[in-house]
Amino acid sequence: MKCRLLFFSLLLVQNIFAQTDSLKEWSISGYGELYYSYDFSNPATHEKSNFLYNHKRHNELNANLVLVKANYSDSKYRFNLGVMAGNYPQYNLSTEPTWAQFVYEANIGIKLSTKRDIWIDAGILPSHIGFESAVSADCWTLTRSLLAENSPYYETGLRVSYTSRNEKLFLSALYLNGWQKIRKPDYIQKPSFGFQTTYKPSGKLTLNYSNYLGTDKPDSLNSFRHFHNLYLQYEPSQKFGLIVGFDAGFEKIRHLPLNSWYSPVIIVRKSINLKTDIVFRGEYYNDNKEVIIETGTPNGFQTFGFSSNIDFKLSQKIKLRFEGKMYHSKDKIFSNKSNNNNISLTSNLTFKF
Fold first, then answer.
1. What average pLDDT does range 249-271 have in this prediction?
2. For labeling, which of 21, 27, 122, 138 is most exposed (least CB within 10 Å)?
């Protein structure tokens, strides 16, 4: 029912704005994703592993994300508001207040300079970390990488950003409520920070470094987390693309030893023709101290992932995708902790409006 209301709202708002020439700075967009996924571990509750937040349901047709966005932008101000429903907010925002679980983003920005592209934005923002988002149609792979699923998708705070005149360099600094938090928890008073640098020496190459400096634990534990994300995206032609990414995190709690986790990923995309792409992904996630992913096993979470998907562009706004994926873990964490391996098949149909 929530999905239907979002679609009806989108159509209504589109009609209103289409009739008013004076509101050209406004834009309205929508996105919908239906999917079916089969996990050969056959989870009895229909829920996949605890380290996954997208395409979470097993053996049932479902909506991963239904999103309606309104954007306003002129030479001095900008505004973004997105409301959503589906499995992604259901699982990824489950610890947020009920009202916040429907908010994809809500922020307002003011340009600080008339001569340079410097902005300050405040509110609920898309994460400054990583090359993936919850919008599957914008990502090379159907499902998200392990490093994306276990790092922030969104953040709340204040961002100051700068884009160079040739648009090759982007810099931002952020003051944040915490590690993927909309409402700051009562038990955390310490601030968190983030920084991002993106450099595009050409239209074919993107280099990015992002970090997070702060905590995700109660102040009483006196913890500090610093997290680093690097990726390279290279597209020498329309037929080939490469993404190489690496995440590394470190966390210190009181007098305890420093804990760390890391995750490399490589994604290769090949276009067969204008309407068909094939993508391969290889990844590894090592969190043997269970800082991010809890397993309750002797070696923690040490898992390889391999996947391949084929995409069919039915039109400029509709895409049909199929993916096969396998995880192999050092410990038996699948099928009620009786198996080291997990295999799943996923298909989805995405719409953009």
1. 97
2. 21
Contact 298, 331 (CB under 8 A): yes
**Whole-number Cα distances in Å, 213 to 179, 191, 196, 264:** 9, 9, 12, 20
Tokens 């920084």 belong to 195
Q: Shortest CA distance to 82 belongs to which of 100, 64, 98?
A: 100
**Ordered DSSP codes for 37-71:** EEETT--TTSB--TT--SS-BSSSEEEEEEEEEEE
DSSP string, 139-197: SSSSSPPHHHHTS-SEEEEEEEEEE-TTS-EEEEEEEESSTT-SSPPTT--S-EEEEEE
Q: How many residues does the chain have?
A: 353
pLDDT (tens digit per residue) in 295-309: 999 999 999 999 999
Phi, psi (rounded to 5 degrees) for 339? -145, 145
Q: Which two tokens stand for residue 124?
A: 């609920």
pTM: 0.91
* Structure tokens belonging to residue 309: 């998907």
pLDDT tens for residues 151-209? 999 999 999 999 999 999 999 999 999 999 999 999 999 999 999 999 999 999 999 99
**Residue 5, SS3?**
helix
177 or 23, higher pLDDT:
177
How far apart CA 316 and CA 96 sit, in angstroms, is 35
Chain-centroid distance, C-alpha 117: 26
Rounded to 5°, angle at Cα 134 from 303 and 292: 35
